[in-house]
Amino acid sequence: MSEIIKMHVRETIQTGGGGGSDAIWLPNVSEQGVISWTKSTSTTAPTERNIKGADGQNGQDGQDGAPGQDGADGLGIKSVDINGSNHLIVTYDDNTTHDAGALPTVPIAENQEV
């Protein structure tokens, strides 16, 4: 590094960069969370401060909601089966059954994959 560059860097550091005012504004945060600023002429860096603060306590768990209502007719499907006549038979929770009709059959050739 040449002497000219070293000298220029030293002058810039000593004069504060030559960018106008060398005033430093230091923040101050009150307990209420209000930030204010104080002008300082010191070039010494202020002490580090934690402005985040400690974590708060976890909140309480909420209550479970009320159970949902049964469907419109109140009957759920208990099982689905195919009888010997190839009909779809639906059995409901109250053990009533409904024949949903014959299922279509599709012939499968001997060498056709399913």
Structure description:
The chain has a domain of 38 residues. The N terminus is likely disordered. A 3-stranded antiparallel β-sheet has the order 3-4-5, with no helix packed on it. Strands 1-2 form a two-stranded antiparallel sheet. 11% of the residues lie in helices and 26% in strands. The longest helix has 13 residues. It has 114 residues and is α+β, with helices and mostly antiparallel strands. The protein is elongated and about 100 Å long.
The coarse overall form would be elongated
Structural category is alpha+beta
| Total helical segments | 1
> How is the largest sheet built, in terms of strand order?
3-4-5
| Helix content range | 10-25%
Strand-residue fraction? 25-35%
Count the beta strands: 5
The span between the termini is 82 Å
Arithmetic mean of pLDDT: 75
Quick overview of this protein structure:
With 114 residues, the protein is of the alpha+beta class.
Keywords for this structure?
elongated; 26% strand; three-stranded antiparallel β-sheet; two-stranded antiparallel sheet; alpha+beta; 114 residues; 1 helix
Please describe the topology of this protein.
Blueprint: H1 3-15, E1 24-29, E2 35-40, E3 77-82, E4 87-92, E5 97-102
Antiparallel strand pairs: 1-2, 3-4, 4-5
